[in-house]
Automatic annotation (TrEMBL):
Binds 4 Cu cations per monomer. GO terms for cellular component: apoplast. NCBIfam families: laccase (TIGR03389). Its cofactor is Cu cation. Belongs to the multicopper oxidase family. The keyword Glycoprotein applies. This is Laccase.
């Protein structure tokens, strides 16, 4: 194993997209940011220097951070952010993981432009469990906002209303020609006929789940969230913010140009979404300039059946070499968390008529602390958080019917405590309060197995009988269906404080977040390591 050093200078950069320019926060002046490359078992040290006016922290989304929670990155959860002029070296080892992940800013809405890919190759000499591709291509999907994203969210918080949506989706930072800017450049993926390519697809968007398609080409999904899956052939990939998908595509033609699209998936028509599809082209070598591009028709934004078919078909590879280590039998903690929106009073919110949109888990709207939770835990600083996060909804009601009461939520900085190595089953139930909506929930510090999923109210008696405990897909971010539920299982084998939240940034901002506190184990390698000397303290 090697040590890989990276230097991230966080700097402003003027960038032109959609026919207009604005200064954006970048790493090393690049948008999207640089891709980190390493191998399984390597140690990665990223020296981050903050040269911008904002406080910054960087999260390595999906990296387990075994015992190194200090390098996880969410501001005020595992560290205080780097202030202007500060430096911090994130230092972590890639234990038992290989595949595609992403890094992104984990403070304010800075991840709109502060993000990039992470590629973890298998250990030297270890092959992929699928045919070796001719070439590998990283595709970062995102959103472009003509206005300043910090202004967008600040405006929304003041009014109490939902923020504006982005102006176009992007593929590797570019939207392709769109009505508001026909001269916008599309990225070109150059391929040779007869060769197979591995696409490492990352959804780095703030607020939109996406459909991904290539005209005239099926894809074979071989990995999601840096875990191998049984090969799944599909026309359309569904990918939520924070998720990653590796797919093989064979250039099975001899020449031609084929449109690639990234378009929104939002099953609730009541929620506004950026409807501008990003395009790129799959371009065969030897194609005449005059040749016409074959079009891809993206699914409608509310094509829930397309999304469901894809999601329900994913299975862990569960091979001899890569077994699915699903916690089986009775679990130590059986939790039910409702996720959804609410409305709280806000006397100053004029546009919102004296109330503001909020979001909650089990009716708790999480309030960010001013001292990082991990620091408070490690140094026994009292008064920062309480340990009374409810393991079950405080009031039982029909989650999918229209609500009568109970729109207001409780504010608090509450965590749920787990013993080292405890097994957890967590059912995430979407509520129809305000509006049912698909929420991609991300858990830091762990991979989990998605053992079940259904529409309507979770039935604790009958639904578990149908759980897949053999080869469920293993991920770090999972969509909770609109007006439905998703059940996950994981083992609390990583001591520290671990954030869990909706990866739609607007919902995180509104409070759809909480944290698990996992105690140290008794064994020699079962405790949280001490904080690095240069960790920014609060
Ligand atoms: Cu990708 Cu807590 O985030």
């Amino acid at each position: 194993a090697r040590v890989r050093h990276y230097k991230f200078n966080v700097v402003m950069k003027n960038v032109t997209r959609l026919c207009s320019s604005k200064p954006i926060v970048t790493v090393n002046g690049e948008f999207p940011g640089p891709t980190l490359y390493a191998r399984e078992d390597d140690t990665v040290i990223v020296k981050v220097v903050n040269h911008v006016k904002y406080n910054v922290s960087i999260h390595w989304h999906g990296i387990r951070q075994l015992r190194t929670g200090w390098s996880d990155g969410p501001a005020y959860i595992t560290q205080c952010p780097l202030q202007t002029g500060q430096t911090f070296s994130y230092n972590f080892t890639l234990t038992g993981q290989r595949g595609t992940l992403l890094w992104h800013a984990h403070i304010l809405w800075l991840r709109a432009t502060l993000h990039g890919g992470i590629v973890i190759l298998p250990k030297l000499g270890v092959p992929y469990p699928f045919p070796k591709p001719h070439e590998e291509l990283v595709l970062v999907l995102g959103e472009w906002w003509k206005s300043d994203t910090e202004a967008v969210i600040n405006e929304a918080l003041k009014s109490g209303l939902a923020p504006n949506v982005s102006d176009a989706h992007t593929i590797n930072g570019h939207a392709g020609p769109v009505p508001s800017c026909p001269s916008s450049q599309a990225r070109r993926l150059s391929v040779d006929g007869g060769k197979t390519y591995l696409l490492r697809i990352i959804n780095a968007a703030l607020n939109d789940e996406l459909f991904f398609k290539i005209a005239g080409h099926n894809m074979t999904v071989v990995e999601v969230d840096a875990t191998y899956v049984k090969p799944l052939e599909t026309e359309t990939i569904v990918i939520s913010p924070g998720q990653t998908t590796n797919a093989l595509v064979t250039a099975g033609r001899s020449t031609g140009k084929y449109l690639i699209t990234a378009s929104p998936f939002m099953d609730t028509l009541a929620v506004a979404v950026d409807n501008v599809t990003a395009t790129a082209t799959l371009h065969y070598s030897g194609t005449l300039a005059s040749s016409v591009t074959a079009l891809a028709v993206p699914p409608p934004r509310n094509a829930t059946s397309v999304a469901d078919r894809f999601t329900d078909s994913l299975r862990s590879l569960n091979s001899k070499v890569y077994p699915a280590k699903v916690p089986r039998g009775a679990v130590d903690h059986s939790l039910l968390f409702t996720v959804g929106l609410g409305i709280n009073p806000c006397p100053t919110c004029k546009a919102g008529n004296g109330s503001r949109a909020v979001a909650a888990i089990n009716n708790v709207t999480f309030v960010m602390p001013t001292v990082a939770l991990l620091q408070a835990h490690f140094f026994n600083i009292s008064g920062v958080f309480t340990e009374d996060f409810p393991g079950n909804p405080p009031t039982v009601f029909n989650y999918t019917a229209s609500p009568t009461t109970g729109l207001a939520t409780t504010n608090g900085t509450k965590v749920y405590r787990l013993a080292y190595n405890a097994t957890v089953q967590l059912v995430l139930q979407d509520t129809g309060i305000i509006v049912p909506e698909n929420h991609p929930i991300h858990l830091h510090g762990f991979n989990f197995f998605v053992v079940g999923r259904g529409i309507g109210n979770y039935d604790a008696k009958n639904d578990p009988k149908r759980f897949n405990l053999v080869d469920p897909v293993e991920r770090n971010t999972v969509g909770v269906p609109s007006g439905g539920w998703t059940a996950i299982r994981f083992r609390a084998d990583n001591p520290g404080v671990w954030f869990m939240h909706c990866h739609l940034e607007v919902h995180t901002t509104w409070g759809l977040k909480m944290a698990f506190l996992v105690d140290d184990g008794k064994g020699p390698n079962e405790s949280l390591l001490p904080p690095p000397a240069d960790l920014p303290r609060c």
